[in-house]
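Entry for the shared binder. Reason: the reviewer on the internal report wants the predicted structure included alongside the sequence.
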Amino acid sequence: MKAVAIVTNSLSGGGAERAMNLLADELGKTPELSVLLIPINAGPRDLVEPGCEISEINRVWNGGLWDSLNAFFRFQFVIFKFKPKFLLLNCDLPEFYSAFAVWSAKCVIVEHTTRPWAGRQSFGNLIRLILRVRGAICVRVSDRIDVSPHFKNAEVIPNIIEPKIFVSFSNQRDDSHSQGKLLYIGRVSREKRPDLFIELARTTGIEAVIIGDGRLRLSLERDSKDILNLKFLGQQLNPWEIASKRDLLVLTSDYEGDGLVALEAISMGIPVVLRKTSDLLKIGFPQRSYFEDIPALATRLATSNFMEFELAGSERRQILKGRNPGEVSRLWLNLLLSLK
């Protein structure tokens, strides 16, 4: 039996964390592996309750240097005690901690984004150089993600999409096709372009909600108090319990890694419209699901009642192909068993 430690930022926080929790749950069911999930930052449990052992490091976000050092040494103790053969690393902080791990394990970087180590690229390049010297490899969750120059020929294993975990989501589109609300779900940060969503809410007058938190939230909320149809709901453990199949998810980002929020939405039958950027076009939605700019989208929404953005069953299946828990876990199991 091979020991595998899956190291993440936290148990909750976004689609990438949820995807890794789902992976930990699936790999924990296999008799060939012993799985330990290690979330570094303290936080609430996600909707997924992994069926494997969990060892929480409980680093406090913005807790200062002393707390971070204590968390680093707690992580080293957990790794040394568990003695994993493999470390699966999700995001920057797990990479940093594992680059200096006292226990020698095969590191597998799980790349979720097209912009790793954003804002700290020089430091990130150094950490990845150290990991590469230690024999690390990289797995991409999408073939759209470029991991050069650090890694070549990185294998692609998609994230798991499992709508069954959103048990509280039960709203169905009613016969009248009455209009729902506009949804923004994700970090309230510059690359996600919440300003475009706010412009859409202001232009259309349609009920709109921003679900998520981030550096820009307080200033944007303050500056848009005059938009009475817009609400900021903050971070939600299960954002989909606020959603309905009558709603429309609007993806305004400059770029996305795997576009998990859009994939989760369509898995539950919620319509999605995406900004027409070179990056988002690669996610593979039909052309009618994209918009050029906010005025053009506002004009479409005035007449469509969100209906034109609904996907046929065959379109959903094509976009979500290969992402069920069984298929993804088999790909990971085959990879881990093949590594030396």
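Summary line for the report: The chain has eleven helices and 13 strands.
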